[in-house]
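Recap quiz, item 2
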Amino acid sequence: GQQVMQIPQYQHVQEGEDFTTYCNSSTTLSNIQWYKQRPGGHPVFLIQLVKSGEVKKQKRLTFQFGEAKKNSSLHITATQTTDVGTYFCAGDAGNMLTFGGGTRLMVKP
Amino acid sequence: DVKVTQSSRYLVKRTGEKVFLECVQDMDHENMFWYRQDPGLGLRLIYFSYDVKMKEKGDIPEGYSVSREKKERFSLILESASTNQTSMYLCASSLGQGASYEQYFGPGTRLTVT
């Protein structure tokens, strides 16, 4: 079946440093979604990418979808303590989403 | 605002017990989902439903069943709970069929099976 791998599993950064998480699928995706889960919370939808090579920005967050539609990345510029949480990608290759394992971001003030 | 609620935040059950986890959404969404979340494994889909009385197996349906008698309610059933089903269970809903719609998650139920 479809597999979605996400790296790294954990990332510690100093506040103000940049952060990137990468997502790779074993199959071509129709779209990819990103979610954020705060500690003790539930996943919350951030964005969806649909087109090959698409780049979308939300303030300090930049999302990219690869040309082959098999990989994606989330980059956060100048992290803040409010960015703490686990970031999940989720790929659609059929009629259901497959989630990556998540990247847990910890930010030292 | 979409609201997805789950019947319990924490639940402790004994091995062999039958367990019901309830999920209700208030936005008339077509799709509903049950996931389990374990550290390092992300969210794994157990079952989903795209309509009343319809259900589809996800990636890890073994040991679970579901019921959707009303559009707003989706229940997850553990027929005979086992310790390897200790996990966080998350319910979600989305507006349309297919996987192209954002999913709204409930707060989760942390189930411990002893």
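The radius of gyration of chain B is 13 Å.
Chain B has a mean pLDDT of 93.
End of item.
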